[in-house]
């Protein structure tokens, strides 16, 4: 793995390219039968995409707005369906650089992101099963659901603290601390 400085530079370059997408306001709008399922698979007209390069190409022009998710080009904006988050963080690595811990996530599309104040980790509780649903912001309002194995790795690296009298699990990356959950039994 490249050094942390090199990795941060690569991520910044990718984000810079993505900022151009935010400025595109195409006149033609429509929808296309593309769906991203909770496991990060992409489907077109009910069939899974077989070419990872095509999925990565579409992911590069994916944008989230208040009204939903869109594939955006300078000419056209097409709505698609996303069941949860458009990406899945399948792996997390802990890297130290100058005694600073960085958590480096890799998504199902081989995109890497370092958890920090611009790429926060957040955890929701699923109202149906009361299980944690962890996410990391990848870029421009696009999140990755942190996969079960990666979340267990985070929990193993976490430390227990107290906040407002409750026992919580926290983890830090790039000087930012994130709360992963409460260890107290619910009443």
Describe the structure.
- The chain has 187 residues and is α+β, with helices and mostly antiparallel strands.
- It has two domains: 4-82, duf1285 like domain (duf1285 like fold, Roll), CATH 3.10.540.10; 87-182, duf1285 protein fold.
- Helix content is 20%, strand content 48%.
- It is built from three helices and 15 strands.
- The strands form three sheets. Strands 3-2-1-6-5-4 form a six-stranded mixed sheet.
- Strand 7 (87-97) and strand 8 form a beta hairpin.
- The longest helix has 20 residues, at 4-23.
- The protein starts with a helix and ends in a 5-residue tail after the last strand.
- The mean pLDDT is 88.
Strand percentage: over 45%
CATH domain topology of the largest domain? duf1285 protein fold
SS elements, strand count: 15
Give the uncertain stretches in residue-range form. none
For the record, the count of structural domains works out to: 2
Q: Estimate the global geometry from the Cα principal axes.
A: globular
Please state the second-level CATH architecture of the largest domain: Roll
CATH-level-4 superfamily name of the largest domain: duf1285 protein
